[in-house]
What we know:
Elements (H helix, E strand, L loop, with lengths): L6 H12 L6 H25 L5 H12 L5 E2 L1 H8 L3 H13 L3 E5 L7 E5 L1 H21 L5 H17 L11
Antiparallel strand pairs: 1-3, 2-3
Helix pairs in contact: 2-6, 3-6, 4-5
Amino acid sequence: MSDVEDAVDRILDQWARERPDLDCSPMGIIGRITQLQREVFLAQRATFARHGLDAPSFDVLAALRRAGEPYQLTPTALMRTALVTSGAITQRLDRLEEKGLISRERSEADGRAVVVTLTQAGRAALDAALPDHLETERELLHGLSPADRELLADLLRRLLVARGRVPPEPSGT
Length: 173
């Protein structure tokens, strides 16, 4: 138990007074996650904007960069990575292609399939934004010790796995 109180503690105290018959403790976790979600969104938006990107664009570029040489994935693989619909991934790819950060071409292995490739400009944009993004995330976690960060990461992982959020099996490209 912390000796520091936040706005969620006040809300929980109010509910305990008004509805002592209910266990409102889930609000302590979900309320704080909701507040943090907003903080993360705003901080990341500002960071990506400094690099001419947004979060969805960064996600696509990062997925391609993590794929390793030759920095290619199929739109389906990108869709799975981003957990979005085919329409959403198409919009993202259209915007990135217009900016010259990715290219789309027919697969040499299968002429019917399309392959998305990270361009040199895309790699440069991602590589420039990544250190700034990591610093933003470090700042968001300021106040937690390394052990606390590890514990929080583990707890959040367990919660996500319990909710069925496990990665799909890799399918290559």
